[in-house]
Amino acid sequence: MKTAIDDLAILPATKEAWTLLYQDEFLLVVNKPAHLLTVPGRHPQNQDCLISRVQQEFPNAAVVHRLDYDTSGLLVLPLTKKALSTISKEFQSRGTKKLYQAVVSGVPYPPVGTVDKAIAADPDNRPLYKISSDGKASVTHYKVLKELPEHQASLVQLEPVTGRSHQLRLHMQSIGHAILGDPFYAKPAQHQQSSRLMLHAAELEFTHPQSGELMHFKAEADFLKALC
């Protein structure tokens, strides 16, 4: 008999290790590789994830924000209940700043702009989302950093104002510039241009929950070495 588990995707976890960029008694900042869930998935075979790996070394580490399985980049992981509460409130109030690097098909015009399109779950195509006037308000700022004519693509900086699932990839696809390597929203040829989604959380800024200091971290995407 078919069960609900049968409808869930199995997402093989990469063997690539996560890296520790910062550590104190209150929090960690880590760089997550692509093809790794941030937290355990619903399928029993999707238990290997970033937080389970980190907790082998730091048992008190907790998740306050996430990156998609396909996306690499920076995450802050609180180590105390107070840090978790304080940083959670900062994320909820949009006091943090997150900048992403992405390689998209073509060259967006104008080179600096904003995508303001509501997003909703697509019940007919789970786990995909769709642009819908009935969805949740979603805003992304973008800026072209470099044209890549040999790849018929460009490197862009993406800044999400809101934090909807699949927001960046869906917003870029909606203006005709899908992120390369995207298995969900890119055309087959664009998907096949990369073995991974070319989306990376490259910069993260937040206020330290104990000292009040403004913390800023950068980690360049690995895929840029082969493109730029």
Automatic annotation (TrEMBL):
<protein>
    <recommendedName>
        <fullName>Pseudouridine synthase</fullName>
        <ecNumber>5.4.99.-</ecNumber>
    </recommendedName>
</protein>
<dbReference type="InterPro" id="IPR006145">
    <property type="entry name" value="PsdUridine_synth_RsuA/RluA"/>
</dbReference>
<dbReference type="GO" id="GO:0003723">
    <property type="term" value="F:RNA binding"/>
</dbReference>
<feature type="domain" description="Pseudouridine synthase RsuA/RluA-like">
    <location>
        <begin position="27"/>
        <end position="174"/>
    </location>
</feature>
<dbReference type="GO" id="GO:0000455">
    <property type="term" value="P:enzyme-directed rRNA pseudouridine synthesis"/>
</dbReference>
<dbReference type="Pfam" id="PF00849">
    <property type="entry name" value="PseudoU_synth_2"/>
</dbReference>
<comment type="similarity">
    <text>Belongs to the pseudouridine synthase RluA family.</text>
</comment>
<dbReference type="GO" id="GO:0140098">
    <property type="term" value="F:catalytic activity, acting on RNA"/>
</dbReference>
<keyword id="KW-0413">Isomerase</keyword>
<dbReference type="InterPro" id="IPR050188">
    <property type="entry name" value="RluA_PseudoU_synthase"/>
</dbReference>
<dbReference type="InterPro" id="IPR006225">
    <property type="entry name" value="PsdUridine_synth_RluC/D"/>
</dbReference>
<dbReference type="GO" id="GO:0009982">
    <property type="term" value="F:pseudouridine synthase activity"/>
</dbReference>
<feature type="active site">
    <location>
        <position position="68"/>
    </location>
</feature>
<comment type="function">
    <text>Responsible for synthesis of pseudouridine from uracil.</text>
</comment>
<dbReference type="InterPro" id="IPR020103">
    <property type="entry name" value="PsdUridine_synth_cat_dom_sf"/>
</dbReference>
